[in-house]
């Protein structure tokens, strides 16, 4: 299919150029070829272009630009014969072939040969970009590629082994799962609670008059003040309870007196 389109395209180009150069029925022939090119370009929408989409897209787009160029050329052909038209047309077609490219779809290439060619092209481009990044930005770059057939391609700005070891150390330091983080938090909280319990137990024993041999005068003074405050609170609570009991007894006596009457 590619050879058919290539042959047809070149045939139309050179026949039109020859006819234009000889100035024989130029206008009529160009108009016919414009129609032929438009018909060929309409094949772009058919399913026959699925095998090599980028190749067909490039050639068919060239046919389209060629037809547009012929249309503009046909309007000026009667006015003046330009001997440099063939070179202009060839330059135009060559530039169109370089500038117009089909859009590559981001999916797996089914054709094995096309896939292999694309791999080698993209691989070389990727290796070049990695080299440029390491040189321009003074970055440490390591690139590892395995082809579909399992062949290894690599690039390292310094040492591949040292870069991999550095990467492993970095990932090991930052490789903490949520479960590990929760466990570490629980361990820290547990250690803090144990320390608080030990301090409370020591304080309780001191308030009970135990383990006072190692206490200084200031610590003993603080313990005495705490005990006095505790005794004061106990006495206040005791007085309040007595008052509540007296009030309850008064209410009980008044109820019994009312019932006896």
Automatic annotation (TrEMBL):
CDD domains, per database record: MADS_MEF2_like (cd00265)
Keyword Nucleus: yes
Cited Gene3D superfamilies: Transcription factor, MADS-box
GO terms assigned for molecular function: DNA-binding transcription factor activity; protein dimerization activity; RNA polymerase II transcription regulatory region sequence-specific DNA binding
Boundaries of every MADS-box domain copy: 99-159
InterPro entries with a match to the protein in the record: MADS-box/MEF2_TF, MEF2-like_N, TF_Kbox, TF_MADSbox, TF_MADSbox_sf
Entry annotated with the keyword DNA-binding: yes
Domain K-box: from-to ranges: 183-261
GO cellular component: nucleus
The entry's keywords: DNA-binding, Nucleus, Signal, Transcription, Transcription regulation
Main localization, broad class: nucleus
Alphabetical list of SUPFAM superfamilies matching this protein: SRF-like
Signal peptide boundaries: 1-15
Protein known as: MADS-box protein SOC1-like
Name of the gene: LOC111313815
């Amino acid at each position: 299919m590619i050879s058919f389109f290539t042959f047809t395209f070149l045939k139309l180009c050179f026949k039109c150029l020859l006819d234009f150069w000889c100035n024989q029925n130029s206008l009529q022939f160009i108009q016919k070829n414009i129609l032929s090119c438009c018909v060929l370009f309409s094949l772009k929408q058919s399913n026959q272009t699925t095998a090599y989409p980028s190749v067909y897209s490039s050639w068919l787009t060239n046919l389209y630009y060629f037809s547009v160029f012929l249309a503009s050329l046909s309007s000026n052909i009667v006015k003046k014969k330009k001997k440099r038209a063939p070179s202009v047309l060839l330059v135009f077609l060559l530039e169109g072939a370089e500038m117009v490219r089909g859009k590559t779809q981001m999916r797996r290439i089914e054709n094995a040969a096309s896939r292999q060619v694309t791999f080698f092209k993209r691989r070389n481009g990727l290796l070049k970009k990695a080299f440029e990044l390491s040189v321009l930005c003074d970055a440490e770059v390591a690139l590892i590629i395995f082809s579909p057939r399992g062949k290894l391609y690599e690039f390292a700005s310094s040492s591949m082994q040292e870069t991999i070891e550095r990467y492993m150390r970095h990932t090991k330091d930052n490789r903490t799962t949520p479960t590990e983080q929760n466990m570490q938090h629980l361990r820290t909280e547990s250690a803090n609670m144990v320390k608080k319990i030990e301090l409370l137990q020591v304080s309780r024993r001191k308030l009970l008059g135990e383990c006072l041999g190692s206490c200084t005068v200031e610590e003993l003074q603080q313990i005495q003040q705490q005990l006095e405050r505790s005794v004061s609170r106990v006495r206040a609570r005791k007085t309040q309870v007595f008052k509540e009991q007296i009030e309850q007894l008064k209410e009980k006596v008044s109820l019994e007196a009312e019932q006896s009457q």
